[in-house]
């Protein structure tokens, strides 16, 4: 039986050469993300912005969008976002957080139900008051910071300082680009998105750690080898595994994107993008960053210790 | 060598079998489980067969999630709030000590202030206040902090202020009471197995699965249902409210503004029957403080009418015939057993001690939940098929081993979730799909290492040994980083997101059993069976 071989054996590709393209590319994308973040911003969901999200489905199977727009605008709750989705009359309606504190949000749901329940099935209602949304922003931010710090500490204990630094560069890069993906696609940013980002943090490190484990092993084996060459060997050796895992994970996520349903679609899309970003950054960002961080020092230190 | 101790072999297989057995009920729905239990032969003891399926989150089974918050401003400064109660207590002391005030009782943000007309009374009143009003937090004689600070201002006024501990303690107790009230009210609504729990200091989380009409829940919870006992005003009283009444043809009734006892002090209310007429009535019972206040008021007010006020409506205004000092009372009226029952329930549960505000609502309709389950199942299946085919195509027989391990892996996650009574949510399903992709990562790491070792010229057995051994450190490293992210997610997230974290953490744990130990056993068995000449990939 002939088996599938995605990545050929014994490759000797000069991956570190890619950094001359990947570094400027990532720099541009990161800066673009930061600029977008402060100009366009994320498409925050009700979790973080407060307000009310209602998802309805027309009993008839066809939603009258124009009529829905006028009806909901006439409620007098300010600007309303009305969007169709799916192909059986699904509509999502987003109301802004109403002035007047927690109690004021309840009225929105009541009004919408009274006006639309006759023709539409209420599939989902999410109403978050200003206080809770504020707290969710706080805990989401804390979560990401704690995750980065915890992972940093793990790397600190488990790896040499230079390797840990390289991994952190890669992880931050992946977080930034994922946020960029959120902004370009306008996928809603909510509590589940925080879950996606934290998972991507985990995956990003997973990818980097596999390469760096090999780097460390090789450092012990060949003491006098130039850093660039050492890193090239590390990547070439782990490449078939990197490709395999990227493919199995992407395939699973693709199944989720295609068949997982509307409610999980955004999450699946972001995760899929995240896996691609992480695979790219492990090869083209975090590993070559070691050239600049200066892996040589560590090798020489090792030698010095060995000589002493 | 590829050898296992018998102990390790047995324990691994046992763990896997038990795990899969526990996951089994989750593959069927309620009816399927029942049919299965009935189809069992009689000699199989039923306790041996696991029947507990994984709990589905509200986003999958449909239902309402509502976060309520105690309105602490109302609790402290409301009409029958803490400050108002303190004022009543102080007024009672002023009356019983028969001292004159300069300018009445003044209300402060968190307490009251009085200024005595005669400074000669100061010591006596202060002593009386100190003896009767402040209470230890955490029970009498506990010696803990007091709930109220009694101080004398430089100008000679007496101030009583609730301490931070006093207010927090009260909020804590009120939340406890409110949880009971909410529980009774939802049972009153007749919905199934609501989950009600305290969240933080001043919040209550209410989750009602399968609730079709959240509006009903809102209505039941939205009722303030404040119960108060107040005197019906006499001619010439000025401090009065005109309240609509259920008796006397709905005519508004003048009622004293002073509250004798509020629902907070009511411990119980039941339906009773009059011994002479056998007509249904409603009995009620106060706690010690309520009994004392009620006793005092009814002693002073024999012959007066007592208004029982629920939600600012007079539901009954019986005449006080004799002082009621024991803390027990009876409301009579033209009640049927049913209406008496309703009133008793309202009184029992109606004593919501403070206003509750809805700060978060999430409702998923049953249609969306069902669709999500279907979509989740489909995605899981498709992902599994993709990965299984891909692994087999790449690694042949070794891929098959990895695939068996993968299926066991998913089974173990489900089994563990049933045992831990963890909740499966939509992001949780996404987590399962994702672990299908990442679980084989460990196998890939091992297999690629085996290949490498083999190509470097080792024997088959040595390559397999070295592959497992060398890849193991990397597997631990890569899974640890994932575990850190997942753990933080678990502590941070709530509801659906937490479901994702649970799946992910369990997935990492079971990978070690399946991808490492189980695959290794299968490869060892294969090796001794086939005696291959080369690595088959």
Topology, element by element:
The complex is a heterodimer of chains A (308) and B (537).
Chain A: H1 19-39, H2 46-49, E1 51-58, H3 65-74, E2 80-85, E3 90-95, H4 101-116, E4 120-128, H5 130-158, H6 161-185, H7 191-221, H8 227-259, H9 262-293, H10 295-307
Antiparallel strand pairs in A: 1-3, 1-4, 2-3
Chain B: H1 6-23, H2 30-39, E1 55-56, H3 58-61, E2 63-70, H4 72-77, H5 82-97, E3 106-108, E4 111-114, H6 122-132, E5 148-152, E6 158-162, H7 164-189, E7 195-199, E8 203-209, H8 214-222, E9 227-231, E10 240-243, E11 253-256, E12 261-262, E13 266-273, E14 280-286, H9 288-300, E15 306-310, E16 313-316, E17 328-331, H10 337-350, E18 356-364, H11 366-419, E19 423-424, H12 426-455, H13 460-492, H14 496-530
Parallel strand pairs in B: 1-19
Antiparallel strand pairs in B: 2-8, 2-18, 3-4, 4-6, 5-6, 7-8, 9-12, 9-15, 10-11, 13-14, 14-17, 15-16
Could you characterize what this model shows?
- Chain A: Belongs to the SecD/SecF family. SecF subfamily.
- Chain A: InterPro entries: SecD/SecF_arch_bac, SecD/SecF_bac, SecD/SecF_CS, SecD_SecF_C, SecD_SecF_C_bact, SecF_bac.
- Chain A: It holds the Pfam family SecD_SecF_C.
- Chain A: Forms a complex with SecD. Part of the essential Sec protein translocation apparatus which comprises SecA, SecYEG and auxiliary proteins SecDF-YajC and YidC.
- The complex is a heterodimer of chains A (308) and B (537).
- Chain A is of the alpha+beta class.
- Chain A has helices at 19-39, 46-49, 65-74, 101-116, 130-158, 161-185, 191-221, 227-259, 262-293, 295-307, and strands at residues 51-58, 80-85, 90-95, 120-128.
- Chain A folds into two domains: 15-43 and 133-307, Multidrug efflux transporter AcrB transmembrane domain (Multidrug efflux transporter AcrB transmembrane fold, Up-down Bundle), CATH 1.20.1640.10; 51-128, 2-Layer Sandwich (Alpha-Beta Plaits), CATH 3.30.70.3400.
- The longest helix of chain A is centred in the last third of the chain and has 33 residues, at 227-259.
- The N and C termini of chain A lie far apart (54 Å).
- Mean pLDDT of chain A is 87; it is low at 297-308.
- Chain B has three domains: 6-59 and 369-530, Multidrug efflux transporter AcrB transmembrane fold, CATH 1.20.1640.10; 74-167; 227-330, Gyrase A, domain 2, CATH 3.30.1360.200.
- Chain B has helices at 6-23, 30-39, 58-61, 72-77, 82-97, 122-132, 164-189, 214-222, 288-300, 337-350, 366-419, 426-455, 460-492, 496-530, and strands at residues 55-56, 63-70, 106-108, 111-114, 148-152, 158-162, 195-199, 203-209, 227-231, 240-243, 253-256, 261-262, 266-273, 280-286, 306-310, 313-316, 328-331, 356-364, 423-424.
- Chain B is elongated, with a radius of gyration of 34 Å.
- Classes of the chains: A alpha+beta (308), B alpha+beta (537).
- Chains A and B meet through helix 4, strand 4, helix 5, helix 7 and helix 8 of A and helix 8, strand 18, helix 11, helix 12 and helix 13 of B.
- Strand 4 of chain A pairs antiparallel with strand 18 of chain B.
């Amino acid at each position: 039986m002939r088996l599938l071989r995605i990545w050929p054996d014994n490759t000797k590709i000069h991956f570190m050469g890619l950094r001359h393209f990947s570094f400027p590319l990532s720099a541009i994308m990161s800066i673009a993300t930061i600029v977008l973040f402060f100009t366009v911003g994320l498409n925050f969901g009700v979790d973080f912005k407060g307000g009310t999200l209602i998802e309805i489905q027309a009993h008839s199977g066809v939603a009258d969008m124009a009529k829905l727009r006028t009806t909901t605008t006439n409620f007098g709750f300010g600007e309303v976002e009305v969007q169709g989705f799916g192909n059986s009359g699904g509509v999502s309606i987003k109301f802004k957080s109403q002035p007047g504190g927690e109690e004021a949000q309840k009225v929105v749901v009541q009004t919408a139900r009274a006006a639309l329940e006759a023709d539409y099935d209420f599939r989902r209602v999410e109403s978050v008051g200003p206080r809770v949304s504020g707290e969710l922003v706080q805990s989401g931010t804390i979560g990401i910071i704690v995750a980065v710090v915890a992972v940093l500490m793990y790397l600190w204990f488990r790896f040499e300082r230079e390797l840990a630094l390289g991994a952190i560069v890669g992880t931050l890069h992946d977080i930034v680009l994922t946020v960029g993906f959120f902004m370009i696609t306008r996928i809603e940013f909510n509590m589940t998105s925080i879950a996606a980002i934290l998972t991507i943090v985990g995956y990003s490190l997973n990818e980097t750690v596999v390469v760096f484990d090999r780097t460390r092993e090789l450092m012990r084996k060949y003491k006098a080898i130039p850093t660039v060459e050492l890193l090239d060997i590390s990547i070439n050796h782990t490449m078939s595994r990197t490709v395999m895992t990227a493919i199995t994970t992407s395939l699973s996520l693709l199944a989720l994107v295609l068949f997982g349903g509307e409610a999980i679609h955004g999450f699946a899309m972001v995760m899929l993008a995240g896996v691609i970003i992480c695979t790219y950054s492990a090869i083209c960002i975090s590993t070559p960053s070691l050239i600049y961080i200066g892996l040589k020092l560590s090798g020489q230190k090792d030698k010095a210790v060995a000589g002493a | 060598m590829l050898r296992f101790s018998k102990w390790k072999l047995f324990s691994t297989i046992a763990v896997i079998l038990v795990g899969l057995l526990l996951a089994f009920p989750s593959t069927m729905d309620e009816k399927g489980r029942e049919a299965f239990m009935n189809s069992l032969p009689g000699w199989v003891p039923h306790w041996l067969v696991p029947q507990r399926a994984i709990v589905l989150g509200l986003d999958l089974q449909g239902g309402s999630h509502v976060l309520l918050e105690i309105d602490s401003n109302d609790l402290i400064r409301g009409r029958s709030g803490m400050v108002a109660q303190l004022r009543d207590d102080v007024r009672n002391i002023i009356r019983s000590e028969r001292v004159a005030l300069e300018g009445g009782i003044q209300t402060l943000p968190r307490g009251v202030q009085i200024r005595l007309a005669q400074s000669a009374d100061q010591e006596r009143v202060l002593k009386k206040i100190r003896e009767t009003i402040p209470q230890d937090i955490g029970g009498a004689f506990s010696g803990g902090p007091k709930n109220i600070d009694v101080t004398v201002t430089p100008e000679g006024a007496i101030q009583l202020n609730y301490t931070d501990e006093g207010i927090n303690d009260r909020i804590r107790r009120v939340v406890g009471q409110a949880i009971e009230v909410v529980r009774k009210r939802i049972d009153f609504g007749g919905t199934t197995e609501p989950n009600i729990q305290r969240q933080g200091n001043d919040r209550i989380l209410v989750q009602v699965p399968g609730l079709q009409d959240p509006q009903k829940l809102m209505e039941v919870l939205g009722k303030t249902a404040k119960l108060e006992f107040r005197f019906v005003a006499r001619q010439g009283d000025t401090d009065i409210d005109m309240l609509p009444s259920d008796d006397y043809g709905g005519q508004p009734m003048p009622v004293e503004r002073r509250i004798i006892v509020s629902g907070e002090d009511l411990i119980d209310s039941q339906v009773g029957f009059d011994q002479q007429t056998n007509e249904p009535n409603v009995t009620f019972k106060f706690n010690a403080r309520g009994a004392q206040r009620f006793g005092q008021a009814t002693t002073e007010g024999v012959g007066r009418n007592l208004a029982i006020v629920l939600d600012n409506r007079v539901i009954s205004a019986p005449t006080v015939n004799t002082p009621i000092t024991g803390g027990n009372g009876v409301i009579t009226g033209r009640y049927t057993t049913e209406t008496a029952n309703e009133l008793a329930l309202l009184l029992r549960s109606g004593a919501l001690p403070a206003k509750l505000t809805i700060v978060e609502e999430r409702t998923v309709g049953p249609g969306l939940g069902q669709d999500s389950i279907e979509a989740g199942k489909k995605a899981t299946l498709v992902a599994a098929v993709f990965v299984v085919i891909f692994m087999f195509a790449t690694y042949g027989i070794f891929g098959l081993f990895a695939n068996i391990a993968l299926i066991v892996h998913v089974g173990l996650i489900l089994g563990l979730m049933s045992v831990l009574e963890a909740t499966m949510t939509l992001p949780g399903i996404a987590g399962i799909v994702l672990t299908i992709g990442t679980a084989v990562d460990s196998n890939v790491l091992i297999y690629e290492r085996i290949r490498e070792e083999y190509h470097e010229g080792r024997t088959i057995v040595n390559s397999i040994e070295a592959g497992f051994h060398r890849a193991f450190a990397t597997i631990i490293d890569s899974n640890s980083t994932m575990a850190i992210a997942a753990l933080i997610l678990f502590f941070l997230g709530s509801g659906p997101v937490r479901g994702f974290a649970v799946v992910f953490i369990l997935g990492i744990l079971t990978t070690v059993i399946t991808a490492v130990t189980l695959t290794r056993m299968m490869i060892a068995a294969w090796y001794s069976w086939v005696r291959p000449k080369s690595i088959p990939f």
